[in-house]
């Protein structure tokens, strides 16, 4: 796609080009910037990249980008407590999409809990929408706090 006015600039091509740019931003941000310079602004890109790649696990590097996003939330959770709910919410979407098993999700979730980085849900208000795909048809269960609660339900038998 050369420009938005070229013949090959279909909505899908524009979406794919944007996603490619966001993947590059997430990659460079996580690998090139020192931790102390990382900020909350990357969260929008990480949320979009993380959830979009879960819907298309045929991408050869989806798991690498998923790990980069999870790593961003893991290292940032002490500075930004809202990530304590983003982590299980994203794991819930991953299980629901069939990208990872509930036992994998449980292991990843426990990794963050062992680090002592989860905050009580009463401390963090997260009413933002995370699952945009489902929110277009039904808002029920698409917010971060709802997905985080569902994650606990999905992994209850893994303990």
In a few lines, what is going on in this structure?
By secondary structure, the protein is mostly helical. The protein is built from seven helices and no strands.
Question: Please, could you describe this protein's structure?
Answer:
With 159 residues, this protein is mainly alpha-helical. The protein has one domain. It has 7 helices and no strands. α1 crosses α3, α2 packs antiparallel against α3 and α4 runs antiparallel to α5. The mean pLDDT is 80.
Structural descriptors:
single chain; 159 residues; mainly alpha; 0% strand
| Overall body shape | globular
* SS summary, helix count: 7
Radius of gyration: 16 Å
Low-confidence stretches: none
Strand content: under 5%
What is the succession of H and E elements? HHHHHHH
Count the beta strands: 0
| Termini gap | 48 Å
The number of domains: 1
Secondary-structure-based class equals mainly alpha
Oligomer classification? single chain
Q: Report the sheet with the most strands, covering strand number, pairing sense and barrel closure.
A: none
Q: How would you state the average pLDDT, rounded?
A: 80
Helix content: 55-70%
Q: What topology emerges from the helices and strands here?
A:
Elements (H helix, E strand, L loop, with lengths): L10 H22 L10 H12 L7 H15 L6 H14 L5 H13 L17 H4 L8 H11 L5
